[in-house]
């Protein structure tokens, strides 16, 4: 599959460092520690592709992975640590805002949430951004292996219901990098965005 061909291209601190705005890209967003790096690695079937690192400096970078000549995945910086200073947060907002609004090749956002703590402030912010900009959004409610079947089903329904008002049209699925569930479903959504 296409995602197995993912290769690290560059890490950008500023938007002008990104590759030319041609072709198609899909960006991954999520609070720190939600499980974004692990999900990216699973989808691309490559352990160690997206590095799981907790340093605030690194969280400020947009990491670009190429799939082929025209298609890319972007690992957006997350936040969620109390210790991140306000100035960094402002820079984050500006960068992400600029990227999401200005990037013509951006096809949609994959938002990673810990299924045990869905729809935190960060997630609501991303969903309303997507709604305002008219960007597609697909949520991976990950670490679903930590929930019982019943809990997972209830979380999925409750999250879907709440998302319908935050960002109509956005979709959500259960995902587990550990149990390797939901991976094909996620790949299918990404492929449909690329092919569109
Ligand atoms: P990121 O900061 O969003 O990139 O989060 P990471 O991918 O580094 O994951 C944060 C922590 O959650 C790590 O300790 C992972 O091993 C763990 N984790 C990630 N995905 C899963 C999952 O599907 N199930 C479980 N049980 N743990 C996970």
Automatic annotation (TrEMBL):
Tell me its cofactors.
Mg(2+)
Q: Which UniProt keywords apply?
A: Cell cycle, Cell division, GTP-binding, Magnesium, Metal-binding, Nucleotide-binding, Septation
Q: Entry's InterPro entries?
A: G_ENGB_dom, GTP-bd, GTP-bd_ribosome_bio_YsxC, P-loop_NTPase
In this chain the EngB-type G domain maps to: 22-196
Q: Name one GO cellular component term.
A: cytosol
Xref: PANTHER family: ENGB-TYPE G DOMAIN-CONTAINING PROTEIN (PTHR11649:SF13), MSS1/TRME-RELATED GTP-BINDING PROTEIN (PTHR11649)
> Which family does this protein fall into?
Belongs to the TRAFAC class TrmE-Era-EngA-EngB-Septin-like GTPase superfamily. EngB GTPase family.
Listed name of the protein? Probable GTP-binding protein EngB
Q: Which organism is it from?
A: Tahibacter soli
Lineage from the top down? Bacteria, Pseudomonadati, Pseudomonadota, Gammaproteobacteria, Lysobacterales
Whichever gene encodes this chain, its name is yihA
């Amino acid at each position: 599959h296409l995602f197995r061909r993912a290769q690290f291209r560059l890490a950008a601190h500023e938007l002008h460092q990104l590759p030319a705005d041609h072709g198609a890209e899909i960006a991954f967003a999520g609070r720190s520690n939600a499980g974004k790096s692990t999900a990216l690695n699973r989808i691309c079937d490559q352990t160690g592709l997206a590095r799981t690192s907790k340093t605030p400096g690194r969280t400020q970078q947009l990491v670009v992975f190429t799939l082929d000549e025209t298609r890319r995945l972007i690992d957006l910086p997350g936040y969620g640590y109390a210790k991140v200073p306000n100035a960094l947060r402002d820079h984050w907002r500006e960068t992400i805002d600029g990227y999401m609004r200005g990037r013509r090749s951006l096809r949609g956002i994959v938002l990673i949430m810990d299924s045990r703590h869905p729809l935190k402030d960060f997630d609501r912010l991303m969903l309303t951004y997507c709604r305002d900009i008219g960007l597609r959004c697909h949520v991976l409610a990950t670490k679903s292996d930590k929930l019982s079947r019943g809990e997972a089903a209830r979380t999925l329904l409750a999250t879907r219901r709440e998302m319908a008002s935050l960002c109509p049209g956005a979709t959500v699925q259960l995902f587990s990098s550990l149990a390797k569930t939901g991976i094909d479903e996620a790949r299918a959504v990404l492929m449909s965005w690329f092919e569109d």
